[in-house]
Amino acid sequence: KAGVTQTPRYLIKTRGQQVTLSCSPISGHRSVSWYQQTPGQGLQFLFEYFSETQRNKGNFPGRFSGRQFSNSRSEMNVSTLELGDSALYLCASSLEGAEVLGANVLTFGAGSRLTVL
Amino acid sequence: ELKVEQNPLFLSMQEGKNYTIYCNYSTTSDRLYWYRQDPGKSLESLFVLLSNGAVKQEGRLMASLDTKARLSTLHITAAVHDLSATYFCAVGDSGGGADGLTFGKGTHLIIQP
Fold first, then answer.
1. Do A73 and A93 meet the contact criterion of CB atoms below 8 Å apart?
2. For A84, phi and psi rounded to 5 degrees?
């Protein structure tokens, strides 16, 4: 059974550019969440999508956005990149939405490591 | 705002020893998770704890949850080198809502022969 697949794995951008990251969840999983991991701030929640709808968003500026497609694949976009956006971006999928107690065990992908120069 | 504190943040121990990692959280929650992360790798789910008094064990790792104290522990028994990793606890907001998990800073565990 394939896991959560994230592309690209590594990328380098310069300030002011934008970037799009892709995530393919485990087959059958309809919930996709995104997290940012940095040495200073640790793991921080970005947003969660379920059935193509953003259900919650973390405390990040509007430069961070995402979407989910009908096949549950998700993309996140960061516009006008800043140096502080350098991070490991992790996507996670789960079988059900978070309203099902206990079922929201997240399976994480390998991440996309973004470096902003 | 939900806050999650882990301690210690760094732990170096010898093989064969026992130790406990603590995870305190600030508001009521109905679900707590433990994850493991190896260097350069993603997060691997270890345990899900859903009720007060819940205890789960897998090999040399045992996790427990005290919802009244808002405390979870991850106990390592007779540590082996392969358990060297960073361990995170993560807490979901009460009510099982569609909120993201709040993670602790992680405990960087090094087990030396």
1. no
2. -70, -5
Query: Touching check for A101 and chain B: CB below 8 Å?
Result: yes
CA–CA distance, B111 with B77 (Å, rounded to integer) = 12
**Could you please report the per-residue DSSP string of A20-37?**
EEEEEPPTT--EEEEEEE
Virtual torsion, Cα B100, A2, A85, A13, nearest 10 deg: -160
Query: Tens digit of pLDDT per residue, chain A (117 long)?
Result: 679 999 999 999 999 999 999 999 999 888 899 999 999 999 999 999 988 999 888 999 999 999 999 999 999 999 999 999 999 999 999 876 544 555 468 899 999 999 999
Q: What totals of helices (H) and strands (E) does chain B contain, helices first?
A: 0, 11
B32 and B56 Cβ atoms separated by less than 8 Å: no
What is the least distance, in Å, from the CA of A74 to any CA of chain B?
16
Rounded Cα–Cα distance for residues A94 and A65 (Å): 20
Residue A79 sits at φ, ψ, to 5 deg, of -100, 160
Q: Which of residues 10-69 of B touch A (CB under 8 A)?
A: 30-31, 33, 35, 41-45, 48, 50
